[in-house]
Amino acid sequence: VAGLGNYGLRGTRHSVGMAVLDRLARQLAVAEGWRVDRRCCADVALATAHGLELVLLKPRRFMNLNGLSVASAAEIYSLGPGDIYLVHDDLDKALGKVAIKLGGSARGHNGVQSCISALHSSEMTRLRVGIGRP
Questions:
Q1: Domain limits for position 64
Q2: What's the CATH number where 125 sits?
Q3: Residue 75: strand pairing partners
Q4: Per-10-residue mean pLDDT for the chain, 134 residues long?
Q5: CA distances (Å), 83 to each of 36, 70, 92, 94, 97, in order?
Q6: Residue 109 is among the residues annotated as catalytic for this protein
Q7: pTM for this one?
């Protein structure tokens, strides 16, 4: 589960994917388990939920390079594009509204496009979190 965003700009609406991952880590009681993984240039926490092993990932790169971290982590943890969930902001959704999207185009989102390019696939499931238009 990768929370897309701009690592140096936490707390902004554009980095809501990372905020969702922080919340998920707290709910799964692994918030203290975040560690820097230099191999994929990301903060990583491992968790278990409903019998599934999860790799929580917050790339330490700007949004348009998030895919490099996601692809590196996929290789390290032997994951295919279909195993990956991206959590990212969506300008076209009202603030706080969420939607799940299975595959498809990036719809102009630079972080998603970076992931599609780095993984050579658009099969990732996406949790789109509405941030509305300013």
A1: 2-130
A2: 3.40.50.1470
A3: none
A4: 90 90 96 96 96 96 96 97 97 94 92 97 96 86
A5: 22, 11, 26, 27, 24
A6: no
A7: 0.93
